[in-house]
Specification:
Length: 216
């Protein structure tokens, strides 16, 4: 493995106080190596192509949803408006509520699909930030890299079950990549590059857990 592509992330189950929403334990991302400041120095060439194609994926994805789900698109507002990307994009470390929206995909599935919210965690490691989806069968885990004033680049891998999440670029890892943008006050969007044909685009709505329910 190329040393410059190693992003060592491990997960641990930690009992946290003030978890009225979850009613139990939340895994927290712990970092062993702070990533390079530039995502260009880390990303693999095939993933660089996938990342560059991500903005163009919005057009076909939204076209697949209209007009049948026009009301749902209007309700989502800025979340599904690719032209919205505000400054001050950095996410404060802490617990977040995340909700998945999938657009397009196989004909047997609705072109617009949304799922119950789950929990994510953003951890600060000095100036670096890591992101982890904490629950579910498939969880993206990785680092957030600043990329201009209005977005972060996310590079990580998908973890399954209770297995320790692999590092980005590790042999056999299913790499996860995308962008994070702020679309409204206290509302962010994580747009993930497709990894299969289940959707044309996968979007996470990321909003902070209320202060009184944050881990202490």
């Amino acid at each position: 493995m190329r040393c410059r592509n190693v992003l060592a992330l491990s997960s641990a189950l930690v009992l946290l106080a003030g978890c009225a929403t979850t009613g139990g334990a939340r895994p927290v991302v712990t970092s062993e190596i702070v990533p390079d400041k530039s995502w260009q120095g880390v990303i693999l060439p095939p993933d660089s192509t996938r990342l560059a194609a991500l903005p163009a994926a919005w057009g076909p994805a939204l076209a697949a949803v209209r007009p049948r789900f026009a009301a749902a698109l209007a309700k989502e507002g800025a979340l599904l408006d690719p032209s919205v990307a505000l400054d001050h994009v950095a996410l404060p470390p802490g617990s977040y509520t995340c909700r998945v929206v999938k657009l397009g995909g196989p004909r047997r599935l609705p072109a617009y699909r949304t799922y119950p919210p789950f929990f994510c965690y953003v951890r600060g490691e000095g100036a670096a930030l890591s992101f982890m989806k904490q629950t579910g069968d498939e969880r993206p885990v990785g680092w957030l890299y600043p990329d201009g004033d209005t977005r972060y680049v996310f590079l990580g891998a998908y973890a399954r079950g209770r297995v320790t999440p692999p590092s980005y670029g590790a042999p056999g890892a299913r790499n996860a990549l995308g962008t994070i943008e702020r679309v409204a006050p206290f509302r962010w969007r994580l747009t993930l590059a497709p990894v299969d044909d289940s959707a044309l685009l996968t979007v996470y709505e990321v909003t902070p857990v209320p202060l009184e329910q944050q881990a202490k």
